[in-house]
Protein backbone atom coordinates (compact mmCIF):
# COMPACT_ATOMS: atom_id res chain seq x y z
CA UNK A 1 0.00 0.00 0.00
CA UNK A 2 1.45 3.42 -0.96
CA UNK A 3 2.05 6.17 1.56
CA UNK A 4 -0.52 8.52 0.00
CA UNK A 5 -3.13 5.77 0.12
CA UNK A 6 -2.32 4.99 3.73
CA UNK A 7 -2.61 8.67 4.74
CA UNK A 8 -5.98 8.95 3.01
CA UNK A 9 -7.22 5.76 4.67
CA UNK A 10 -6.08 6.96 8.15
CA UNK A 11 -7.85 10.30 7.72
CA UNK A 12 -11.05 8.54 6.72
CA UNK A 13 -10.85 6.25 9.76
CA UNK A 14 -10.32 9.21 12.16
CA UNK A 15 -13.37 10.93 10.72
CA UNK A 16 -15.37 7.71 11.14
CA UNK A 17 -14.30 7.38 14.77
CA UNK A 18 -15.13 11.00 15.54
CA UNK A 19 -18.59 10.89 14.03
CA UNK A 20 -20.07 7.38 14.13
CA UNK A 21 -18.30 4.33 15.68
CA UNK A 22 -15.11 4.83 17.70
CA UNK A 23 -14.76 1.05 18.30
CA UNK A 24 -15.00 0.22 14.59
CA UNK A 25 -12.52 2.93 13.71
CA UNK A 26 -10.10 1.62 16.37
CA UNK A 27 -10.20 -1.89 14.93
CA UNK A 28 -9.62 -0.70 11.39
CA UNK A 29 -6.68 1.47 12.53
CA UNK A 30 -5.06 -1.59 14.14
CA UNK A 31 -5.40 -3.56 10.92
CA UNK A 32 -3.88 -0.67 8.98
CA UNK A 33 -0.95 -0.56 11.43
CA UNK A 34 -0.38 -4.30 11.11
CA UNK A 35 -0.28 -3.90 7.35
CA UNK A 36 2.34 -1.14 7.61
CA UNK A 37 4.57 -2.91 10.14
CA UNK A 38 4.06 -6.47 8.90
CA UNK A 39 3.00 -7.67 12.37
CA UNK A 40 0.79 -10.80 12.56
CA UNK A 41 -2.48 -10.22 14.30
CA UNK A 42 -2.77 -11.85 17.70
CA UNK A 43 -4.85 -15.01 17.91
CA UNK A 44 -7.66 -14.82 20.37
CA UNK A 45 -7.12 -16.95 23.48
CA UNK A 46 -9.42 -19.89 23.90
CA UNK A 47 -12.28 -19.40 26.24
CA UNK A 48 -11.64 -20.93 29.68
CA UNK A 49 -13.45 -24.20 30.32
CA UNK A 50 -16.20 -24.13 32.91
CA UNK A 51 -15.30 -25.37 36.37
CA UNK A 52 -15.72 -29.14 36.69
CA UNK A 53 -15.81 -29.75 32.89
CA UNK A 54 -13.59 -32.55 31.50
CA UNK A 55 -10.48 -31.47 29.58
CA UNK A 56 -10.81 -31.34 25.78
CA UNK A 57 -9.73 -34.48 23.95
CA UNK A 58 -6.30 -34.55 22.43
CA UNK A 59 -6.17 -34.14 18.65
CA UNK A 60 -6.04 -37.51 16.87
CA UNK A 61 -4.16 -38.29 13.67
CA UNK A 62 -6.41 -39.12 10.66
CA UNK A 63 -7.03 -42.82 10.07
CA UNK A 64 -4.87 -44.32 7.29
CA UNK A 65 -6.61 -44.94 3.90
CA UNK A 66 -7.54 -48.56 3.19
CA UNK A 67 -5.19 -50.35 0.76
CA UNK A 68 -6.39 -50.62 -2.89
CA UNK A 69 -8.06 -53.91 -3.82
CA UNK A 70 -5.81 -56.52 -5.40
CA UNK A 71 -6.32 -56.77 -9.23
CA UNK A 72 -8.36 -59.76 -10.33
CA UNK A 73 -7.01 -62.03 -13.07
CA UNK A 74 -8.85 -61.36 -16.40
CA UNK A 75 -10.22 -64.46 -18.14
CA UNK A 76 -8.62 -65.30 -21.51
CA UNK A 77 -11.07 -64.45 -24.33
CA UNK A 78 -12.63 -67.29 -26.30
CA UNK A 79 -11.14 -67.59 -29.78
CA UNK A 80 -12.83 -69.72 -32.50
CA UNK A 81 -10.51 -71.79 -34.68
CA UNK A 82 -10.51 -74.50 -37.34
CA UNK A 83 -7.92 -77.01 -38.48
CA UNK A 84 -6.62 -77.08 -42.07
CA UNK A 85 -8.45 -79.41 -44.45
CA UNK A 86 -6.45 -81.97 -46.37
CA UNK A 87 -7.50 -83.18 -49.82
CA UNK A 88 -6.29 -83.59 -53.39
CA UNK A 89 -6.71 -80.44 -55.47
CA UNK A 90 -6.23 -79.86 -59.17
CA UNK A 91 -3.55 -77.24 -59.71
CA UNK A 92 -4.91 -74.10 -61.37
CA UNK A 93 -3.72 -70.71 -62.51
CA UNK A 94 -5.65 -67.47 -62.17
CA UNK A 95 -5.15 -64.81 -64.81
CA UNK A 96 -6.75 -61.51 -65.76
CA UNK A 97 -8.62 -61.53 -69.04
CA UNK A 98 -11.62 -59.93 -70.64
CA UNK A 99 -15.01 -60.93 -71.99
CA UNK A 100 -15.76 -60.79 -75.70
CA UNK A 101 -18.93 -61.26 -77.72
CA UNK A 102 -19.15 -64.55 -79.59
CA UNK A 103 -20.46 -62.73 -82.68
CA UNK A 104 -20.37 -59.05 -83.55
CA UNK A 105 -22.02 -58.03 -86.82
CA UNK A 106 -22.12 -54.65 -88.52
CA UNK A 107 -25.47 -54.38 -90.25
CA UNK A 108 -25.17 -52.85 -93.71
CA UNK A 109 -27.49 -51.74 -96.48
CA UNK A 110 -26.99 -54.20 -99.31
CA UNK A 111 -29.09 -52.21 -101.78
CA UNK A 112 -29.20 -48.44 -102.28
CA UNK A 113 -32.28 -46.50 -101.29
CA UNK A 114 -33.80 -44.20 -98.73
CA UNK A 115 -33.99 -45.53 -95.18
CA UNK A 116 -37.70 -45.58 -94.35
CA UNK A 117 -37.87 -46.88 -90.78
CA UNK A 118 -35.88 -48.09 -87.76
CA UNK A 119 -37.82 -50.84 -85.94
CA UNK A 120 -35.90 -51.08 -82.63
CA UNK A 121 -34.93 -48.97 -79.64
CA UNK A 122 -31.22 -48.33 -79.22
CA UNK A 123 -29.72 -51.00 -76.95
CA UNK A 124 -32.71 -53.33 -77.25
CA UNK A 125 -32.44 -57.11 -77.11
CA UNK A 126 -33.73 -58.73 -80.29
CA UNK A 127 -34.43 -62.22 -81.55
CA UNK A 128 -33.10 -63.85 -84.68
CA UNK A 129 -35.19 -62.74 -87.67
CA UNK A 130 -36.59 -59.59 -86.04
CA UNK A 131 -37.02 -56.70 -88.50
CA UNK A 132 -34.54 -53.92 -87.71
CA UNK A 133 -34.45 -51.55 -90.71
CA UNK A 134 -36.63 -50.99 -93.77
CA UNK A 135 -35.29 -49.41 -96.98
CA UNK A 136 -37.61 -47.93 -99.60
CA UNK A 137 -39.19 -50.89 -101.43
CA UNK A 138 -41.29 -49.44 -104.27
CA UNK A 139 -38.44 -49.47 -106.80
CA UNK A 140 -37.52 -53.08 -106.04
CA UNK A 141 -41.12 -54.29 -106.19
CA UNK A 142 -41.40 -52.73 -109.64
CA UNK A 143 -38.21 -54.42 -110.76
CA UNK A 144 -39.55 -57.75 -109.53
CA UNK A 145 -42.79 -57.31 -111.43
CA UNK A 146 -40.86 -56.39 -114.57
CA UNK A 147 -38.72 -59.51 -114.27
CA UNK A 148 -41.78 -61.67 -113.72
CA UNK A 149 -43.41 -60.21 -116.84
CA UNK A 150 -40.32 -60.95 -118.90
CA UNK A 151 -40.40 -64.51 -117.63
CA UNK A 152 -44.01 -64.89 -118.72
CA UNK A 153 -43.10 -63.52 -122.16
CA UNK A 154 -40.32 -66.06 -122.61
CA UNK A 155 -42.59 -68.88 -121.52
CA UNK A 156 -45.10 -67.78 -124.17
CA UNK A 157 -42.33 -67.72 -126.77
CA UNK A 158 -41.35 -71.25 -125.79
CA UNK A 159 -44.94 -72.45 -126.13
CA UNK A 160 -45.23 -70.84 -129.57
CA UNK A 161 -41.92 -72.31 -130.76
CA UNK A 162 -42.92 -75.78 -129.57
CA UNK A 163 -46.23 -75.50 -131.43
CA UNK A 164 -44.50 -74.44 -134.65
CA UNK A 165 -41.99 -77.25 -134.43
CA UNK A 166 -44.83 -79.76 -134.15
CA UNK A 167 -46.78 -78.21 -137.03
CA UNK A 168 -43.84 -77.93 -139.43
CA UNK A 169 -42.70 -81.44 -138.65
CA UNK A 170 -46.10 -82.72 -139.81
CA UNK A 171 -45.94 -80.58 -142.96
CA UNK A 172 -42.52 -81.94 -143.82
CA UNK A 173 -43.90 -85.49 -143.67
CA UNK A 174 -46.49 -84.49 -146.27
CA UNK A 175 -43.86 -82.61 -148.25
CA UNK A 176 -45.80 -79.39 -147.62
CA UNK A 177 -42.85 -77.60 -145.97
CA UNK A 178 -39.10 -77.73 -146.08
CA UNK A 179 -36.80 -79.06 -143.39
CA UNK A 180 -35.33 -75.59 -143.08
CA UNK A 181 -38.59 -74.38 -141.59
CA UNK A 182 -38.49 -77.13 -139.00
CA UNK A 183 -34.88 -76.41 -138.09
CA UNK A 184 -35.66 -72.71 -137.66
CA UNK A 185 -38.45 -73.39 -135.16
CA UNK A 186 -36.33 -75.91 -133.30
CA UNK A 187 -33.80 -73.12 -132.87
CA UNK A 188 -36.55 -70.72 -131.75
CA UNK A 189 -37.67 -73.29 -129.18
CA UNK A 190 -34.15 -73.71 -127.77
CA UNK A 191 -33.69 -69.93 -127.62
CA UNK A 192 -36.98 -69.58 -125.74
CA UNK A 193 -35.87 -72.19 -123.21
CA UNK A 194 -32.63 -70.28 -122.66
CA UNK A 195 -34.51 -67.00 -122.37
CA UNK A 196 -36.74 -68.54 -119.72
CA UNK A 197 -33.69 -69.46 -117.65
CA UNK A 198 -32.36 -65.90 -117.99
CA UNK A 199 -35.74 -64.42 -117.12
CA UNK A 200 -36.03 -66.70 -114.07
CA UNK A 201 -32.63 -65.51 -112.91
CA UNK A 202 -33.79 -61.90 -113.21
CA UNK A 203 -36.85 -62.73 -111.13
CA UNK A 204 -34.68 -64.36 -108.46
CA UNK A 205 -32.36 -61.35 -108.44
CA UNK A 206 -35.26 -58.93 -108.14
CA UNK A 207 -36.71 -60.96 -105.26
CA UNK A 208 -33.32 -60.97 -103.56
CA UNK A 209 -32.93 -57.21 -103.91
CA UNK A 210 -36.41 -56.71 -102.53
CA UNK A 211 -35.56 -58.89 -99.52
CA UNK A 212 -32.45 -56.77 -98.92
CA UNK A 213 -34.70 -53.78 -98.25
CA UNK A 214 -35.56 -55.45 -94.93
CA UNK A 215 -32.55 -55.76 -92.62
CA UNK A 216 -33.19 -58.48 -90.01
CA UNK A 217 -31.31 -59.74 -86.94
CA UNK A 218 -28.95 -62.59 -87.88
CA UNK A 219 -29.07 -64.04 -84.32
CA UNK A 220 -30.34 -63.34 -80.81
CA UNK A 221 -28.39 -60.43 -79.38
CA UNK A 222 -28.29 -56.84 -78.22
CA UNK A 223 -28.41 -53.90 -80.58
CA UNK A 224 -26.16 -50.90 -80.31
CA UNK A 225 -27.40 -47.50 -81.39
CA UNK A 226 -28.65 -46.92 -84.92
CA UNK A 227 -26.08 -45.01 -86.97
CA UNK A 228 -28.33 -43.57 -89.70
CA UNK A 229 -31.67 -41.85 -89.25
CA UNK A 230 -34.71 -42.47 -91.47
CA UNK A 231 -34.82 -40.31 -94.59
CA UNK A 232 -31.14 -40.67 -95.42
CA UNK A 233 -29.85 -42.33 -98.55
CA UNK A 234 -28.05 -45.58 -97.71
CA UNK A 235 -26.13 -48.14 -99.68
CA UNK A 236 -24.99 -45.70 -102.36
CA UNK A 237 -21.36 -45.91 -101.20
CA UNK A 238 -19.30 -47.89 -98.70
CA UNK A 239 -18.99 -44.96 -96.33
CA UNK A 240 -22.67 -44.76 -95.35
CA UNK A 241 -23.67 -48.42 -95.69
CA UNK A 242 -23.41 -49.38 -91.98
CA UNK A 243 -26.77 -49.01 -90.26
CA UNK A 244 -25.97 -50.40 -86.81
CA UNK A 245 -24.26 -53.18 -84.86
CA UNK A 246 -25.53 -56.27 -83.07
CA UNK A 247 -23.64 -58.43 -80.55
CA UNK A 248 -24.36 -61.96 -79.39
CA UNK A 249 -24.00 -62.07 -75.58
CA UNK A 250 -25.19 -65.60 -74.80
CA UNK A 251 -22.97 -67.53 -74.87
CA UNK A 252 -19.96 -65.26 -74.40
CA UNK A 253 -16.20 -65.67 -74.71
CA UNK A 254 -13.56 -64.98 -72.06
CA UNK A 255 -9.97 -64.87 -73.24
CA UNK A 256 -6.62 -64.61 -71.49
CA UNK A 257 -3.00 -64.56 -72.56
CA UNK A 258 -0.73 -66.94 -70.66
CA UNK A 259 3.03 -66.71 -70.47
CA UNK A 260 5.36 -68.89 -72.50
CA UNK A 261 6.32 -70.94 -69.44
CA UNK A 262 2.69 -71.55 -68.51
CA UNK A 263 1.86 -72.34 -72.13
CA UNK A 264 4.59 -74.97 -72.30
CA UNK A 265 3.35 -76.55 -69.08
CA UNK A 266 -0.26 -76.63 -70.28
CA UNK A 267 0.73 -78.05 -73.65
CA UNK A 268 2.88 -80.72 -72.00
CA UNK A 269 0.05 -81.78 -69.70
CA UNK A 270 -2.43 -81.95 -72.58
CA UNK A 271 -0.01 -83.94 -74.72
CA UNK A 272 0.75 -86.28 -71.82
CA UNK A 273 -2.94 -87.00 -71.35
CA UNK A 274 -3.39 -87.35 -75.15
CA UNK A 275 -6.61 -85.37 -75.13
CA UNK A 276 -8.68 -85.06 -78.27
CA UNK A 277 -10.22 -81.74 -79.31
CA UNK A 278 -13.59 -82.82 -77.91
CA UNK A 279 -12.02 -83.78 -74.56
CA UNK A 280 -10.06 -80.53 -74.42
CA UNK A 281 -13.25 -78.54 -74.93
CA UNK A 282 -14.69 -80.14 -71.77
CA UNK A 283 -11.94 -78.68 -69.56
CA UNK A 284 -13.64 -76.36 -67.02
CA UNK A 285 -13.06 -72.60 -67.01
CA UNK A 286 -14.15 -70.46 -64.03
CA UNK A 287 -14.70 -66.71 -64.09
CA UNK A 288 -14.87 -64.08 -61.35
CA UNK A 289 -16.28 -60.61 -62.01
CA UNK A 290 -14.96 -57.43 -60.34
CA UNK A 291 -16.48 -57.11 -56.88
CA UNK A 292 -17.22 -60.82 -56.55
CA UNK A 293 -15.51 -62.98 -53.93
CA UNK A 294 -15.87 -66.33 -55.67
CA UNK A 295 -15.63 -67.85 -59.14
CA UNK A 296 -19.37 -68.24 -59.72
CA UNK A 297 -19.43 -68.29 -63.54
CA UNK A 298 -18.43 -71.59 -65.13
CA UNK A 299 -17.83 -72.64 -68.70
CA UNK A 300 -15.49 -74.77 -70.77
CA UNK A 301 -12.31 -74.33 -72.75
CA UNK A 302 -12.99 -73.39 -76.36
CA UNK A 303 -9.71 -72.60 -78.07
CA UNK A 304 -5.95 -72.64 -77.55
CA UNK A 305 -3.91 -70.76 -80.13
CA UNK A 306 -1.56 -72.96 -82.15
CA UNK A 307 1.43 -70.65 -81.68
CA UNK A 308 2.97 -68.07 -79.34
CA UNK A 309 2.39 -64.44 -80.24
CA UNK A 310 5.87 -63.18 -81.12
CA UNK A 311 4.98 -59.58 -80.23
CA UNK A 312 3.83 -60.33 -76.67
CA UNK A 313 5.39 -63.72 -75.94
CA UNK A 314 2.02 -65.07 -74.81
CA UNK A 315 -0.44 -67.74 -75.87
CA UNK A 316 -4.11 -66.92 -76.41
CA UNK A 317 -6.57 -69.15 -74.52
CA UNK A 318 -10.31 -68.72 -74.89
CA UNK A 319 -13.22 -70.14 -72.91
CA UNK A 320 -16.96 -70.04 -73.53
CA UNK A 321 -19.77 -69.88 -70.97
CA UNK A 322 -23.47 -69.24 -70.76
CA UNK A 323 -24.55 -65.67 -70.05
CA UNK A 324 -28.33 -65.88 -69.83
CA UNK A 325 -28.61 -63.06 -67.29
CA UNK A 326 -26.14 -60.95 -69.30
CA UNK A 327 -23.96 -60.15 -66.28
CA UNK A 328 -20.88 -60.49 -68.47
CA UNK A 329 -20.51 -57.64 -70.93
CA UNK A 330 -18.00 -57.50 -73.79
CA UNK A 331 -14.82 -55.74 -72.75
CA UNK A 332 -15.19 -56.19 -68.98
CA UNK A 333 -12.03 -57.36 -67.20
CA UNK A 334 -12.43 -60.63 -65.29
CA UNK A 335 -10.36 -63.13 -63.34
CA UNK A 336 -10.16 -66.45 -65.18
CA UNK A 337 -9.14 -69.67 -63.45
CA UNK A 338 -7.77 -72.42 -65.66
CA UNK A 339 -6.60 -75.92 -64.69
CA UNK A 340 -2.92 -76.64 -65.15
CA UNK A 341 -3.52 -80.34 -65.73
CA UNK A 342 -1.73 -81.48 -62.56
CA UNK A 343 -3.15 -82.60 -59.20
CA UNK A 344 -1.78 -81.56 -55.80
CA UNK A 345 -1.98 -84.64 -53.58
CA UNK A 346 -2.88 -84.16 -49.87
CA UNK A 347 -2.93 -80.38 -50.15
CA UNK A 348 -3.64 -78.30 -47.02
CA UNK A 349 -6.58 -75.91 -47.40
CA UNK A 350 -7.20 -72.91 -45.16
CA UNK A 351 -10.33 -70.71 -44.99
CA UNK A 352 -10.07 -67.52 -47.01
CA UNK A 353 -11.88 -65.60 -44.26
CA UNK A 354 -8.87 -66.15 -41.97
CA UNK A 355 -6.42 -64.50 -44.37
CA UNK A 356 -5.15 -60.97 -43.79
CA UNK A 357 -2.56 -58.89 -45.59
CA UNK A 358 0.07 -56.31 -44.71
CA UNK A 359 3.30 -55.08 -46.25
CA UNK A 360 4.92 -58.43 -45.52
CA UNK A 361 2.32 -60.37 -47.50
CA UNK A 362 -0.64 -62.63 -46.71
CA UNK A 363 -0.82 -63.99 -43.18
CA UNK A 364 -3.13 -65.61 -40.67
CA UNK A 365 -3.33 -65.95 -36.89
CA UNK A 366 -2.77 -69.36 -35.26
CA UNK A 367 -3.06 -70.54 -31.65
CA UNK A 368 0.17 -72.18 -30.43
CA UNK A 369 0.56 -74.94 -27.85
CA UNK A 370 0.55 -72.35 -25.03
CA UNK A 371 -2.82 -71.01 -26.22
CA UNK A 372 -1.18 -67.78 -27.36
CA UNK A 373 -1.76 -66.03 -30.68
CA UNK A 374 0.98 -66.21 -33.30
CA UNK A 375 1.19 -64.34 -36.61
CA UNK A 376 2.07 -66.66 -39.49
CA UNK A 377 2.90 -65.61 -43.08
CA UNK A 378 1.73 -68.13 -45.67
CA UNK A 379 2.23 -68.98 -49.33
CA UNK A 380 -0.96 -69.64 -51.25
CA UNK A 381 -2.07 -71.81 -54.14
CA UNK A 382 -5.35 -72.32 -56.00
CA UNK A 383 -8.73 -71.40 -54.54
CA UNK A 384 -11.29 -74.13 -53.82
CA UNK A 385 -14.64 -72.55 -52.97
CA UNK A 386 -14.31 -70.63 -49.70
CA UNK A 387 -10.95 -72.30 -49.01
CA UNK A 388 -7.50 -71.87 -50.51
CA UNK A 389 -4.50 -74.15 -50.80
CA UNK A 390 -1.58 -73.19 -48.56
CA UNK A 391 1.70 -74.20 -50.18
CA UNK A 392 3.82 -72.97 -47.25
CA UNK A 393 3.62 -71.59 -43.72
CA UNK A 394 0.87 -73.93 -42.48
CA UNK A 395 1.16 -77.28 -40.72
CA UNK A 396 -1.41 -80.01 -40.52
CA UNK A 397 -2.39 -79.49 -36.85
CA UNK A 398 -2.34 -75.68 -36.77
CA UNK A 399 -5.29 -74.06 -35.04
CA UNK A 400 -6.28 -71.24 -37.39
CA UNK A 401 -8.20 -68.30 -35.95
CA UNK A 402 -11.37 -67.64 -37.97
CA UNK A 403 -13.27 -65.24 -35.69
CA UNK A 404 -12.65 -62.27 -33.41
CA UNK A 405 -9.76 -61.30 -35.71
CA UNK A 406 -9.93 -57.70 -34.51
CA UNK A 407 -8.75 -58.76 -31.04
CA UNK A 408 -6.33 -61.52 -32.10
CA UNK A 409 -3.00 -59.79 -31.54
CA UNK A 410 0.30 -61.71 -31.34
CA UNK A 411 1.09 -62.87 -27.78
CA UNK A 412 -2.50 -62.69 -26.53
CA UNK A 413 -3.48 -65.73 -24.44
CA UNK A 414 -6.87 -67.07 -25.42
CA UNK A 415 -9.29 -69.88 -24.73
CA UNK A 416 -9.36 -71.99 -27.93
CA UNK A 417 -12.86 -72.74 -29.15
CA UNK A 418 -13.21 -75.19 -32.08
CA UNK A 419 -15.79 -74.30 -34.72
CA UNK A 420 -16.87 -75.39 -38.20
CA UNK A 421 -17.09 -73.55 -41.50
CA UNK A 422 -19.05 -74.29 -44.69
CA UNK A 423 -17.34 -76.21 -47.46
UniProtKB/TrEMBL annotation:
Keywords: Coiled coil, Signal. Residues 137-164 form a coiled coil. The keyword 4Fe-4S does not apply. Residues 43-71 have a biased composition (Pro residues). Residues 251-340 form the Multidrug resistance protein MdtA-like beta-barrel domain. Its main location: other. Residues 30-75 are annotated as: Disordered. It is found in: Cell envelope. Belongs to the membrane fusion protein (MFP) (TC 8.A.1) family. This is Efflux RND transporter periplasmic adaptor subunit. It comes from Neoroseomonas marina. The lineage of its organism: Bacteria, Pseudomonadati, Pseudomonadota, Alphaproteobacteria, Acetobacterales.
Amino acid sequence: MTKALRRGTAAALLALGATQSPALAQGLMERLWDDVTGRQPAQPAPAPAPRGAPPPPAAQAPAPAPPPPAPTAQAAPAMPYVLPRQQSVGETMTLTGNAMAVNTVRLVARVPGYLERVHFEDGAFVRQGDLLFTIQQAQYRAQLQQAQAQLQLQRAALTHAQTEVTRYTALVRRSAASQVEVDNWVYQRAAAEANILAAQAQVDLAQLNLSYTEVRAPFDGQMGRHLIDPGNMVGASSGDAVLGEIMQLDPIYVQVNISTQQAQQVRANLDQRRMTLEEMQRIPVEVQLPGETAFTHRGTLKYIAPQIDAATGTLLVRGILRNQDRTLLPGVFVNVRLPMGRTLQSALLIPQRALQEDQGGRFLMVIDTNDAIQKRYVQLGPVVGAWQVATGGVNRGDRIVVGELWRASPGLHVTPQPTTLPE
